[in-house]
Amino acid sequence: xxxxxxxxxxxxxxxxxxxxxxxxxxxxxxxxxxxxxxxxxxxxxxxxxxxxxxxxxxxxxxxxxxxxxxxxxxxxxxxxxxxxxxxxxxxxxxxxxxxxxxxxxxxxxxxxxxxxxxxxxxxxxxxxxxxxxxxxxxxxxxxxxxxxxxxxxxxxxxxxxxxxxxxxxxxxxxxxxxxxxxxxxxxxxxxxxxxxxxxxxxxxxxxxxxxxxxxxxxxxxxxxxxxxxxxxxxxxxxxxxxxxxxxxxxxxxxxxxxxxxxxxxxxxxxxxxxxxxxxxxxxxxxxxxxxxxxxxxxxxxxxxxxxxxxxxxxxxxxxxxxxxxxxxxxxxxxxxxxxxxxxxxxxxxxxxxxxxxx
Length: 358
Ligand SMILES: [Fe+2]
Hints:
Elements: E1 10-13, H1 21-28, E2 36-41, H2 48-51, E3 60-64, H3 72-85, E4 92-97, H4 99-111, E5 123-124, E6 134-138, E7 150-154, E8 159-163, E9 171-174, H5 184-202, H6 209-227, H7 233-253, H8 258-270, H9 274-282, H10 286-302, H11 317-328, H12 331-338, H13 348-357
Parallel strand pairs: 1-9, 2-3, 2-4, 4-6, 5-8, 6-9
Antiparallel strand pairs: 7-8
Fe (ii) ion is lined by residues 143, 193, 197, 260, 274, 278.
């Protein structure tokens, strides 16, 4: 069965491209009732980027805290807040931040036009109405969230994305200047998300020529960024943004695998952010991803990253079971990694043994 892939129709790329945002938005204002919602990572509240957001008329600026992984409850709260301040539908929603803000922006733009709690829409193509026009402006690179069809959310019952036709951004602004101040560890963990996307995309049953082409080039760029000392930071940032974009496109056409399934379990129960959770899981997956994991170990050392160890030590049986339930339920990832008979290759016991190594 072939799938229809919807990717982002418009993109603006280049150092300094963020400066064009105001002009783009001005062209979209349709009258006095027209307003924009800016959803911005509260990390930028007192930073220069936060001050560059120019509000006009009834525009709303919402600072979003992403200490925790994106939650359906916060999506609903922000949606209600926007609607209570203005009964008109927003002209556009602009998300500025890392992968979590990208996911919030996608989810909230869908929820501004669809009734009820967002947990009702966790799944594939469940939204009935087209989303509010939404623009994604990443300030971290690697997750591919800027280009994916999914807004990954943790709900009351599960960690599962709102995925579908209405989720992808209508426009993305990729300005490498915006990622230049990312803290070292965070930059590494998020960058490795792209690296892992490529590995998983290329090594599973859903891969095809398109997903391979994106993943291969993304991997070339990831290796330049994390292994080539001759690159300036400016050159590296530009390459990392494109690596993230291509890695996201690659998994859109293929799928993620073992590492992401385990990582979802870690995030759901222990609250780890996606990038670091992936690194913790990938670190222990040499038996599956061989040479790529050895290269990952080399990069960890080279960049002097302190990856958390022995995180399974203090876990209760209940926590381990919950993590395993979360991972085991991600059938599409296991199928991609091991084929239709994946249950012959992966048992709950096997998953628990991986978690125990972390
Ligand atoms: Fe990922």
